[in-house]
Amino acid sequence: MRRRKIVHLIHSLDSGGCENMLLRTLPLLDDFEHTIITLKKRGELANKFEEKNIPLINIEQKNFFNIRSYRQLLKTVKNTQPDLVVTYLFHADAIGRLFLQVFTNTKIIPFLRTTYNHKKYFSAQLFEKLTKHFVKNYLANSQSVKNFYVKNIGVPPEKITVIPNGIDVDFYDKIKRDENLRKSLGIKKEETAIICVANLHINKGHKYLLEAFEEVYRENKGLKLLLVGDGEEKENLLKQVKNYQSEKNILFLGKRNDVPQLLKISDIFILPTLFEGMSNAIIEAMAAEVPIITTDIPENHNLIENKKSGLLFPADNVRRLVKAIELLTDNSTLRKKFSQNSLQRAKEKFDIQTVVNQLTNFFEEI
Question: I need a labelling partner for 207 at 20 to 30 A (CA). Which of 78, 217, 308, 358 fits?
Answer without folding.
Answer: 308
